[in-house]
């Protein structure tokens, strides 16, 4: 099989993550070109991958089959536009854009182009949450009644992320809700279905204007469940990025303590507690995840086969709509808002 020729626009922390995921994918690929506004960073990434540094995004898209867009958020649109104009498959990092209107414009552009596209809402490929989805689908679980989600990490302007742009609302859009918890709202709807109403409150403990670092939200789901979320950017650099999710159904209680490989613990009425973690969790999935849950591997496979990838820009646009409702509610001191 001829390797998929890949290019990277942006070569920072998240690009390094994708480099690692691509190296473990079943579909072969070759990183052939990279571009970054920081020449030294681009050169280091190129040296490590055997790629060439492209003089521009236009030059990069001419050489590749697929483009990974790993820039700061406000730069996504222009890079995506050049890629789709050349007919290249696009993997765009989340969030799509700094706000809903710009996200809508980007999604409309990509959909109209017809190119294969995927967005980095990777929790849909989490073995832990895939197992939860399978547990919730069992009629024995009954209806979902409530969900509680806590998402915390150290503020990504420091530590291994070192993203100064995340302190700039013009480039990032805002703080923890759009930049980090867009994953969470996408996950909640993927697990529990559409959200009808939200209420939210945000705070700025770090004193960075326009960049909230603490948020709480309440959700009302169309199917009847209720939920809550706390999203926090703190200064505990020793603490990894963590999610804790608890779901209560009529006859099922399930807790996720690690958002990729667990452990996942659950109790179904009439049974004792069960748990899966690591390789045991992967083996419990039926059907198993394609490419072992490697989202980048799935994207490459879609490029080779010429079939749609997932999640798409349209999926990400829905997550943006929920995030937008959260910000509108917070601006109105928690008034209920519809996505």
Descriptive notes:
The chain has 339 residues and is an alpha/beta fold. 35% of the residues lie in helices and 25% in strands. It contains twelve helices and 14 strands. The strands form two sheets. It has an eight-stranded mixed β-sheet with strand order 8-9-10-7-11-12-13-14. A hairpin with a 7-residue loop joins β12 and β13. The mean pLDDT is 97.
Short summary of the structure?
This protein is α/β, with parallel strands linked by helices and 339 residues long.
Mean pLDDT: 97
- Report the radius of gyration as a whole number of Å: 20 Å
From N to C, what is the helix and strand string? EHEHEHEHEHEHEHHHEEEEEEEHHH
* Gap between N and C termini: 44 Å
**DSSP, total strands:** 14
The main pleated sheet reads as: 8 strands, mixed
Question: Which regions are unreliable across 5 or more consecutive residues at pLDDT < 50?
Answer: none
Principal-axis shape equals globular
Give, in spatial order, the strands making up the sheet with the most strands: 8-9-10-7-11-12-13-14
Number of contiguous helices? 12
Q: Tell me the fraction of residues in β-strands, as a range.
A: 15-25%
Q: Percent range for helical residues?
A: 25-40%
Helix- and strand-based class? alpha/beta
Question: What's the layout of helices and strands?
Answer:
Layout: E1 4-9, H1 13-23, E2 29-35, H2 39-49, E3 52-53, H3 57-61, E4 66-69, H4 76-85, E5 89-92, H5 100-113, E6 117-119, H6 127-137, E7 144-154, H7 169-172, H8 176-179, H9 182-192, E8 195-203, E9 214-221, E10 226-234, E11 242-249, E12 252-256, E13 264-268, E14 274-276, H10 279-284, H11 295-305, H12 313-331
Helix pairs in contact: 4-5, 5-12, 9-12
